[in-house]
Description:
The structure is a single chain. Helix content is 20%, strand content 43%. It has one helix and eight strands, in the order αββββββββ. The strands form two sheets. Strands 3, 4, 6, 7 and 8 form a five-stranded antiparallel sheet that branches. The chain has a three-stranded antiparallel sheet with strand order 1-2-5, with no helix packed on it. The longest helix has 24 residues, at 2-25.
Amino acid sequence: xxxIALSFLVLAAIIAVPALQAVQVAPQxxxxxxxxxxxxxxxxxxxxxxxxxxxxxxxxxxLNGTQPTRADTPIANGGAVNVPNGHTxxxxxxxxxxISAWHTLVWVASxxxxxxxxxx
Length: 120
Protein backbone atom coordinates (compact mmCIF):
# COMPACT_ATOMS: atom_id res chain seq x y z
CA UNK A 1 0.00 0.00 0.00
CA UNK A 2 2.87 2.35 0.82
CA UNK A 3 4.44 1.78 -2.60
CA ILE A 4 1.19 2.71 -4.38
CA ALA A 5 0.85 5.91 -2.32
CA LEU A 6 4.44 6.87 -3.13
CA SER A 7 3.81 6.19 -6.83
CA PHE A 8 0.86 8.59 -6.78
CA LEU A 9 3.01 11.28 -5.16
CA VAL A 10 5.69 10.85 -7.83
CA LEU A 11 3.05 10.98 -10.56
CA ALA A 12 1.53 14.14 -9.03
CA ALA A 13 4.98 15.77 -8.99
CA ILE A 14 5.56 14.88 -12.65
CA ILE A 15 2.21 16.45 -13.59
CA ALA A 16 2.82 19.56 -11.43
CA VAL A 17 6.11 20.49 -13.13
CA PRO A 18 4.54 21.31 -16.54
CA ALA A 19 1.77 23.21 -14.73
CA LEU A 20 4.37 25.38 -12.99
CA GLN A 21 6.16 25.91 -16.30
CA ALA A 22 2.90 27.10 -17.84
CA VAL A 23 2.43 29.68 -15.10
CA GLN A 24 5.97 30.93 -15.63
CA VAL A 25 5.77 31.25 -19.43
CA ALA A 26 2.19 32.52 -19.66
CA PRO A 27 2.03 35.94 -18.01
CA GLN A 28 -1.30 37.74 -17.72
CA UNK A 29 -1.87 40.34 -20.45
CA UNK A 30 -2.08 44.00 -19.44
CA UNK A 31 -5.55 45.32 -18.62
CA UNK A 32 -6.89 47.29 -21.61
CA UNK A 33 -7.20 51.06 -21.39
CA UNK A 34 -10.40 52.86 -22.40
CA UNK A 35 -10.14 56.45 -23.62
CA UNK A 36 -12.75 58.77 -25.05
CA UNK A 37 -11.79 59.59 -28.63
CA UNK A 38 -14.74 61.86 -29.47
CA UNK A 39 -17.41 63.69 -27.55
CA UNK A 40 -21.05 62.74 -27.52
CA UNK A 41 -22.67 62.70 -30.95
CA UNK A 42 -26.20 64.09 -30.72
CA UNK A 43 -26.43 62.73 -27.14
CA UNK A 44 -26.83 59.18 -28.47
CA UNK A 45 -23.32 57.71 -28.23
CA UNK A 46 -19.70 58.42 -27.39
CA UNK A 47 -16.68 56.97 -29.22
CA UNK A 48 -14.16 55.13 -27.02
CA UNK A 49 -10.76 53.73 -28.05
CA UNK A 50 -9.61 50.41 -26.59
CA UNK A 51 -5.88 49.65 -26.31
CA UNK A 52 -3.56 47.11 -24.73
CA UNK A 53 0.21 47.24 -24.27
CA UNK A 54 0.48 43.45 -24.60
CA UNK A 55 1.90 42.62 -28.01
CA UNK A 56 -0.12 40.04 -29.94
CA UNK A 57 -3.09 40.10 -27.56
CA UNK A 58 -6.66 39.90 -28.84
CA UNK A 59 -9.16 42.43 -27.51
CA UNK A 60 -12.83 41.57 -26.88
CA UNK A 61 -15.57 43.82 -25.55
CA UNK A 62 -19.21 43.94 -24.50
CA LEU A 63 -21.76 46.75 -24.14
CA ASN A 64 -24.33 44.83 -22.10
CA GLY A 65 -22.53 44.74 -18.75
CA THR A 66 -21.32 41.11 -19.02
CA GLN A 67 -17.68 40.06 -18.70
CA PRO A 68 -16.07 39.74 -22.15
CA THR A 69 -15.15 36.23 -23.29
CA ARG A 70 -13.25 35.07 -26.38
CA ALA A 71 -16.64 34.57 -28.04
CA ASP A 72 -17.53 38.27 -27.76
CA THR A 73 -16.96 41.04 -30.29
CA PRO A 74 -13.28 41.43 -31.30
CA ILE A 75 -11.68 44.80 -31.87
CA ALA A 76 -8.23 45.70 -33.18
CA ASN A 77 -5.74 47.20 -30.74
CA GLY A 78 -6.40 50.95 -30.84
CA GLY A 79 -9.81 50.41 -32.41
CA ALA A 80 -12.82 52.54 -31.55
CA VAL A 81 -16.32 51.53 -30.50
CA ASN A 82 -19.47 53.67 -30.30
CA VAL A 83 -20.91 53.29 -26.81
CA PRO A 84 -24.61 54.17 -26.57
CA ASN A 85 -25.56 56.73 -23.92
CA GLY A 86 -25.73 55.13 -20.47
CA HIS A 87 -24.20 51.80 -21.51
CA THR A 88 -21.29 50.05 -19.81
CA UNK A 89 -18.27 49.12 -21.92
CA UNK A 90 -16.18 46.20 -20.68
CA UNK A 91 -12.97 45.12 -22.42
CA UNK A 92 -10.52 42.29 -21.85
CA UNK A 93 -7.28 41.21 -23.55
CA UNK A 94 -6.54 37.57 -24.37
CA UNK A 95 -3.10 36.20 -25.18
CA UNK A 96 -2.29 32.70 -26.39
CA UNK A 97 0.81 30.76 -25.42
CA UNK A 98 2.06 27.42 -26.74
CA ILE A 99 3.01 25.15 -23.85
CA SER A 100 5.34 22.56 -25.36
CA ALA A 101 5.30 20.32 -22.27
CA TRP A 102 1.52 19.97 -22.70
CA HIS A 103 1.55 20.13 -26.52
CA THR A 104 -1.33 22.58 -26.30
CA LEU A 105 -2.31 26.21 -26.72
CA VAL A 106 -3.26 28.05 -23.53
CA TRP A 107 -5.27 31.31 -23.46
CA VAL A 108 -4.65 33.76 -20.62
CA ALA A 109 -7.08 36.61 -19.87
CA SER A 110 -6.37 40.08 -18.51
CA UNK A 111 -8.36 41.85 -15.85
CA UNK A 112 -11.49 43.58 -17.17
CA UNK A 113 -11.52 47.31 -17.92
CA UNK A 114 -14.96 48.80 -17.19
CA UNK A 115 -16.55 52.21 -17.68
CA UNK A 116 -20.07 53.59 -18.10
CA UNK A 117 -20.51 56.59 -20.40
CA UNK A 118 -23.19 59.28 -20.38
CA UNK A 119 -23.93 62.02 -22.88
CA UNK A 120 -25.61 65.17 -21.64
